[in-house]
Amino acid sequence: MPRPARILAFGDNVVDCYRDQNLMFPGGNCVNHAVLARRAGAETAYAGAVCDDDAGRLIRRALTEEGVDVSSLRVEPGQTAYCVIETRDGDRVFVGANLGVSIIAPTRTDLTRLSDFDALHTGRSSHVDAWLPRFAEGTKISYDLATVHDPDRIARVAPHCFLIAFSASGASREDSFALAERARMAGACWSLVTRGIEGAILAGDSGIVEVPAKQVDPIDTLGAGDTYIANVLVGLLDGLQPELILTKAAEAAAQTCLMRGAFGHAAPMSIDLSNMMSLEEVYRTTRPAEAPQEA
């Protein structure tokens, strides 16, 4: 029996704070990926930074309980990253955030570990684009560009990617197909575009496969896109057929929508919100992780 795929998720984390429910959940694209890929059958590890506070301890505890290797999880002074969410007229609204200590560059040890893994997952929220060439020297890269569809950004990121993923809920079918093909032409081996209730498409050498979403009455859609990405990456590494991969991913994403938080593990909200910034301010002021020094 072949061994499970091995995946390292590197970068962002956050606790998602549901202020109107006084609950917080572990999350962030890379934390979610580590857990959801583990649930999909992979062996996973997470490399990131938290603080020794209630939020950081929640993230570590949840990862450990889910069977994720946390030997590369750092503890730094400061505050663990958080995002504040409210429900307004039944819709989820992101109110504000602070990225705390979550934006980090890899250490020499992190880079040395890459050869132990079949793939590394990261994304736009981790701000480590300068490290993609180094990552690609050690293993395959999975990258989540989320809602960023800028051709110039795609052209910079895609050549390093085994899998590149986008969120395109609300986009037309034609635009979604064009987005997937643009990323493939830019150099990505595989391109995934999730389309919310319309399902998802996966483009590769053999063409484009499209699978509809599995219809459920959602409790919380947070983490559904991350579920797709994690399941697609695991399926590709396992050598499954694209249509089967997307079908399994759609089923897993539907299950994610039936729980609160990206993968559960609720705790009473325990966050100092005095330094909360608007999302616009977060995007405007966040600086990338320190770039690698040229030899």
In summary, what is this structure?
The protein is an alpha/beta fold.
Main features:
295 residues, alpha/beta, nine-stranded mixed beta sheet, five-stranded mixed beta sheet, globular
Produce the secondary structure layout.
Elements (H helix, E strand, L loop, with lengths): L5 E5 L3 E5 L4 E5 L1 H11 L3 E8 L3 H12 L3 E7 L6 E7 L2 E8 L9 H6 L5 E5 L8 H7 L1 E7 L4 H7 L5 E5 L5 H14 L3 E5 L5 E5 L2 E5 L12 H14 L4 H15 L10 E2 L10 H7 L10
Parallel strand pairs: 1-4, 1-8, 2-6, 4-5, 8-9, 9-10, 10-11
Antiparallel strand pairs: 2-3, 3-14, 6-7, 11-12, 12-13
Q: What's the helix count?
A: 9
Q: Classify the helix fraction into a percent range.
A: 25-40%
- Kindly report the spatial arrangement of strands forming the biggest sheet: 5-4-1-8-9-10-11-12-13
Name the overall outline. Answer: globular
Kindly report the oligomeric state of this protein: single chain
Order of helices and strands: EEEHEHEEEHEHEHEHEEEHHEH
What radius of gyration results from the CA coordinates? 18 Å
Overall structural class, as computed from helix and strand content, comes to alpha/beta
How many β-strands, per DSSP?
14
Beta-strand residue percentage: 25-35%
Global mean pLDDT: 95
Tell me about the largest β-sheet: 9 strands, mixed
Regions with pLDDT < 50 over 5+ consecutive residues?
A: none
End-to-end distance, in Å? 42 Å
